[in-house]
Amino acid sequence: MKKKVLLIRLDKIGDLISTLCVDQVDFLQDCDVRWVIAQGLSFVPENSSPRRTYLELSKTDVSTSLAILRKFLKEFKPDVVVSFQAPWWVNYALWREGIETRVGVQSQWHSFLFLNRGLRQKRSQAVQHEADYNLELLEYAFSRPAARTQISRAPVLKLEAPVIAGLLEQYHLSPQQYAVVHPGMAGSALNWPVGNYIRLIEALVQSTPVVLTGTPADEPWLKEIKEKFKDHPKVKCLQNKLNTSELLWVLKNARVVIVPSTGVAHLAASLGTPVFGIYSHVRVQKPLRWAARGSRVHIFEAPTRNESGGSCDGERCEEFHCMEKIRVEDLLQQFSALD
């Protein structure tokens, strides 16, 4: 009989992509693996290759989600559960339903109370990628020896975009002939200044159409950019116009996706599209831990020294204004070198 394994990550897109990949390890190949993910992110496992089996839970409607989870646990009866990231009530449900092996990161109070196998991981030190931290936890759960190296060992998640016939034609776009600029982010890391995005777009449209993507939450980053290019024939704003399937199709067919540290970077990289990722060097935000992963990812990281010789220790970046030091010219040079 196959061992039943439940893997839990109730977090954002980038976090989920950096976790979903670990179930590709060889020692899980003969297991029945299920996932528990945050509500609204079903498009990630549904478009992953191979497709994952999952349960979606709302993090805001705790009473309903707790009942759904407990019912699922009774029916699935997992042998091993690995809680990569979850609120207290998830780990409580694992304990309450008597799951034999409950594994997770020893950190918050509920991990000590409700889990019976915990691993101490100081992820804030950012000495490896988030995917490798997740792989390390999974290996610990199955008593597999882990070897920390400077090279990522975790598999890379592959996504396949659903074909949306006529979508590109609707916006007068041709495959691999446009650049996507997604300047918005949730605010969990430092971003490139809006002025730098504007300068980049001004240069790109000399030869290449630019597509702006985003959600309502990205309006603080997009407002000035949209106003600047509202009448430009080569700039198309698709903010709030794409569902998740359409977004994947637009990202898949782009020549490049230019994006800060946010979920769209991980989506595009997993689709195999060239990604220009813009990252801070603040320790907990560094690309070493949070960069999109894939063979066509190019990282642009803020410098740690300024022109006058001053340096930043990676903790007081707001005093150093490091993000504006990532040069538009460097991104343009890399764009010219694309295949």
In what order do the strands lie side by side in the largest sheet? 3-2-1-4-5-6
Listing every helix as H and every strand as E from the N terminus to the C terminus, the arrangement reads EHEHEHEHEHEHHEHEHEHEHEHEHH
Stated plainly, the CATH topology of the largest domain is called: Rossmann fold
Q: Biggest sheet, open or closed, and with what strands and sense?
A: 6 strands, parallel
Give the oligomer, counting copies of the same chain as homo and different chains as hetero: single chain
Uncertain runs: none
- Give the CA-CA distance, first to last residue: 48 Å
Mean pLDDT: 93
Number of domains: 2
By DSSP, the count of extended strands is 12
Share of β-strand residues: 15-25%
Name the CATH class of the largest domain: Alpha Beta
Helix content: 25-40%
Structural class: alpha/beta
Which features characterize this protein?
six-stranded parallel beta sheet, single chain, 14 helices, globular, Rossmann fold
